[in-house]
Design goal:
It contains 12 helices and 21 strands. It is α/β, with parallel strands linked by helices. The chain has an 8-stranded mixed β-sheet with strand order 3-2-1-4-5-6-20-21, with helices on both faces. Helix 1 runs parallel beside helix 11, helix 6 runs parallel beside helix 7 and helix 6 packs antiparallel against helix 11.
């Protein structure tokens, strides 16, 4: 089986789908690897690193011509699709629920496509879950970005000139990103509070040292490991419960996303106006519309002295580590799908069934 590593073409993207280390492991298993020129350079991986791992370096067109399996991080774009052939098997994040045109285009090519972001949230799939591996880094980086934007330090500090009180951090969403944000903020010495629609996350938040702000729950729990969209009544009650902490917070990090839908608005403009002067909001859901009503993707908006930064704190900002983790996810996924260097196509198996979006031009998932 021949696997092709494509250089990411999305603006600002620095990651690569396979690292030289994982390339070497695949070669040792008997796979042939073709890597596009400069595919890993932005993650500090040189072409010579891939060559030493056993890969062949070629042009982008050469990868499409030589490889059967094509691996990427971001969805295949229009330029990619011009080179896709019926024999190709595509592996990347496709966001198929919100990208019907892309899925149709792949179907029209007669190709096959697996979506890495469709990985089921089950224990057997944890080492293949790219959303977890990448969001973990996003949670960490959100705290670092917040620390940079704040005019205060996180920890309690006793000095000859007096005592500096610790900063207060509030985190909306106790998923992978939220948990890492809690852990990072606590390590830096902040007082951390957290809230989530899923009551089962209370124990996880508290185990990392955060105070969990509970809201009486009437069924708004998780669905397949992800938060469901909350009812209007729940949103109202959550705001009332969280407002006291929100208005005292020095840093707020929001991480709430509902797969395939616009991100829920958790902080209104009116709430922002009641926050402390100088407070910072890092909205990690900005790409999906934002958890804060005033946030704009890749912009810093200042409302009544409060900085609102809309971002994904995309893992490309720590591309070396992000690429390492994504590559391990891909490796485990390929090992799961194949036997004796051939795909098993076990459609009765949950991981295969959930991630296989298009097979030989036939769309399987909407």
């Amino acid at each position: 089986m021949k696997i092709g590593i494509l250089k990411e073409s999305q603006k600002g993207e620095k990651r690569v789908a396979l690292s030289p280390f994982i390339t070497k492991k695949l070669v040792e298993k008997g796979f042939e690897i073709y890597s596009e020129n400069g595919a890993g350079v932005s993650s500090l991986y040189k072409d010579s690193d891939y060559e030493e791992a056993g890969a062949s370096i070629t042009s982008r067109e050469g990868v499409f011509e030589s490889a059967q399996v094509l691996v990427k991080i971001n969805p295949f774009d229009e330029a990619d699709l011009k080179l896709v052939q019926r024999r190709h098997i595509l592996m990347s994040q496709l966001y198929h629920k919100s990208s019907p045109e892309l899925i149709k285009a792949i179907s029209d090519k007669g190709a096959t496509a697996f979506s890495m972001d469709a990985m089921p949230r089950i224990s057997r799939a944890q080492d293949m879950d790219v959303l977890s591996s990448q969001n973990n880094l996003a949670g960490y980086k959100a705290v670092i970005l917040g620390a940079y934007e704040m005019t205060k330090i996180f920890p309690l500090m006793m000095t000859a000139a007096g005592t500096i009180t610790p900063s207060r951090v509030l985190i909306y969403g106790v998923g992978v990103a939220g948990l890492q944000a809690i852990a990072t903020a606590k390590r830096l010495g902040a007082v951390v509070e957290a809230t989530d629609i899923r009551s089962e996350t209370k124990e996880q938040a508290e185990s990392l040292g955060a105070k969990f702000i509970s809201v009486e729950n009437s069924g708004e729990d998780s669905e397949g490991g992800y938060a469901k969209e909350a009812s209007e009544d729940y949103v109202k009650r959550q705001k009332e419960a969280v407002n006291e902490s929100l208005f005292k917070a020095d840093l707020v990090i929001t991480t709430a996303n509902v797969p395939g839908r616009k991100a829920p608005v958790l902080i209104t403009e009116e709430q922002v106006k009641q926050m402390k002067n100088g407070a910072v909001i890092i909205d990690l859901a900005a790409a999906q519309g934002g958890n804060c009503e005033v946030s704009k993707l890749n912009e810093k908006v200042i409302v009544n002295g409060v900085k609102v930064i809309g971002t994904t704190v995309a893992p490309e900002s720590v591309s070396t580590n992000a690429s390492e983790l994504y590559a391990k996810n891909i490796y485990n996924f390929i090992m799961h799908l194949t036997e004796d260097l051939n795909f098993k196509w076990d459609l009765e198996e949950e991981i295969t069934d959930e991630t296989l979006i298009v097979q030989d031009g036939v769309q399987r998932k909407n």
